[in-house]
Amino acid sequence: MPAAYSDSQDDIERRRVSRTIFVRPIRFFLQPNTKDILTGMVLDISPLGLCMDTNRLLLEGQEIFIEGSLPITSQTAVVRWSKKMNDSFFKIGLELKR
After folding, report:
1. How far apart are the first and last CA of the chain?
2. All residues at 6 or more sequence positions from 71 whose CB lies less than 8 Å from its CB, including other chains
3. Average pLDDT of the residues in 87-96
4. Closest by alpha carbon to 6, among 24, 21, 17, 25?
5. How far is 16 from 37, CA to CA, in rounded Å?
6. How many angstroms from the chain centroid is the CA of residue 27?
7. Can you give the pTM of this predicted structure?
8. Which pLDDT does position 59 carry in this prediction?
């Protein structure tokens, strides 16, 4: 996974709440009750969402189901944006569902 990333000033100013750097592995599914586990690395987190790196392309509007004990209010999130970082990884912005 990429070791570092940075947000542009425009990205930071668009956020409704500030994010906290929070680097931790994440496991997620594209459908509930499936054994097809995908992985990534959380980069930052807020009460409303998170940013992660993953080797899986996720599309804007796609719903994912998060496994595990991240300090979040929902285990379901919606992809708000996706950016290809290199041939192997994508940076994904997620909004937690309420």
Report:
1. 29
2. 45
3. 96
4. 21
5. 30
6. 10
7. 0.82
8. 97
pLDDT at position 55 over 50: yes
Half-sphere exposure of residue 6: CA atoms within 13 angstroms, side-chain side: 2
Yes or no: say if 62 and 79 are a contact pair by the CB < 8 Å rule: yes
- Report residue 97: phi and psi, to 5°: -80, 145
| Beta carbons within 8 Å of 74's beta carbon, 6+ residues apart | 96, 97, 98
Cα–Cα distance measured from residue 51 to residue 16, given in angstroms and rounded to the nearest whole number? 14
CA distance 46 to 62: 19
Torsion, Cα 30 34 36 38, to 10 degrees, reads 40
Instruction: Report d(CA 74, CA 98) in Å as an integer.
Output: 7
